[in-house]
Amino acid sequence: MIKNLIENSYNQIFNKLHEITEGNVIIGGSISLVILGVLDRKCDDLDVVLTTDDWVKYKTILENNFRMIPTLQIKYKELDYDVYTCFDKLTKMNEFHLFVNKAQEIYLDFNGFRVFNPKIHLIDKEMIAESGQDSDKHYQDISRIKKFLNDK
After folding, report:
1. Separation between Cα atoms, residue 49 and residue 65, nearest integer Å
2. Spatial contact of 1 and 111, defined as CB atoms under 8 Å apart
3. What is the number of other CB atoms lying within 10 angstroms of the CB of residue 63?
4. Structural domain boundaries, residue 66
């Protein structure tokens, strides 16, 4: 599913996460927006999301496979999540981010995969822009997500 969108090493990590979580891992970040056709750029990182229930269920297995460093706790409007910076324990490389999201309705089913809900992604992008961490990329993403949601 994401093989052509990211580097092979990230694809291998996603496949491992997909297997560990029995398909419950949610594709997040810009990759989710590319898959849905909102964006058309190449992605150079991997962001994945788990619901709180799935985090509780798979946490021990994930910790056995990945080094997981708590990075942030975010609570903003409908967003409430913890962020972990993770590394593959075998290679000690391939940093990716895991978001444990406490909100409801955070994903869409898309071709047999879970993809981060663009409505929630929009809130996240707007929060980033409002916090002063803005960039042209965030403003472009906000505009494209709004257009995508309005067209639906």
Report:
1. 16
2. yes
3. 13
4. 8-117
In tens digits, the chain (152 residues) has pLDDT values of: 566 666 677 878 888 999 999 999 998 888 888 888 887 777 778 889 999 999 999 999 999 999 999 998 988 877 889 999 999 888 777 789 999 998 778 899 988 889 999 998 898 888 888 877 767 777 888 999 999 899 87
The two three-digit tokens of residue 37, written as one number: 């056709």
In a domain, 52, yes or no: yes
Q: 147 lies in a domain?
A: no
What angle do the packed helices 52-65 and 8-20 form, to 10 degrees?
120
CATH number at residue 18: 3.30.460
Reported pTM: 0.86
Q: Does residue 126 fall inside a structural domain? A: no
Question: What's the number of domains the chain is made of?
Answer: 1
CA 26 – CA 126 distance, rounded (Å): 21
What HEC string does 90-152 produce? CCCCCCEEEEEECCCCCEEEECCEEEECHHHHHHHHHHHHHCCCCCHHHHHHHHHHHHHHHHC
